[in-house]
Amino acid sequence: MSETIAATTAARNAKAPRRRRNETKRKQTIAAYAFVIPFLLLFLLMLVVPLVYSGYLSLFRSQLIGGLTFVGLGNFIQAATDPLFLAGVLRMAFFLVVQVPIMLALSLLFALLLDSGRLRFPRLIRLGIFIPYAVPGVVAALMWGYLYGDFGPFSQLAHFLTIPAPNFLGAGTALYSIMNIVTWGWVGYNMIVIYSALRSIPTELYDAAEMDGAGAIRVAWSIKIPAVRPAIILTAIFSVIGTFQLFNEPKLLQSVAPNVIDGAYTPNLYAYTLAFTDHEVNYAAAVSFILGIVIMIVSYVVQLSTQRRERAK
What we know:
By secondary structure, the protein is mostly helical. The protein is built from 13 helices and 2 strands. Helix 4 crosses helix 7 and helix 10 (229-244) runs antiparallel to helix 13 (281-312). The N and C termini lie far apart (76 Å).
């Protein structure tokens, strides 16, 4: 009898830790879902539901006779052959080829200079480069619009020096002026991303390179840049997405140079104009979907090309 009681007690004592572990795991699971569910709800309400609704709208067309009519892929076919939309996509492709390499090169250069430890007041310099990113895009566009305008300091200085005033928002210069605004605002952000990656490199690599006689430039080229290549790829993909979604700068500069920057200057601005100015919501939804597909394709090509280069090396 005593042996049976002892066995029962031992079994209960063995099950107690298991119950506590199960109870702890259950509480952890509940806590995890409690943290995740708010994000999932916002994700569904703010992204999934609008995407589904936009996809539904893109399949219809509002006509004078017959009202809302189902056209299937008709809006997508029209957008794929729309000269205004295609011109905006090509304009942003040129923007991507010219502006993004310059911006990323400057970001990498500033990050390497800060990481070198040879600059005086590095924290002040880092803050000064990053501050333009903290300025809201709308405020930055308005500020640069004033600087580019006829009454801005550039034009006033040209008048004072009795030389022809530069036209920063002309037919051949407006796109480059927008490139300057975007570069000014986003160099600091990309620099911080790359600089953070540089700070995670083990210092033992630098010590070994110095023992082998490598200078600062050689260390930067052979150790630092290869080590932060994932961060550079990440900033490149973000830049691709941001380029094709360009909206604030051309929209605000449109009031300064309406003859140059029209409602179809960028694909994102074109979709906005279609929806809120021309009231072609269904066609705007199709244009937005095609723009999203273009962004995905270009981002995938950029990522794939960089991965192939890494494998080749």
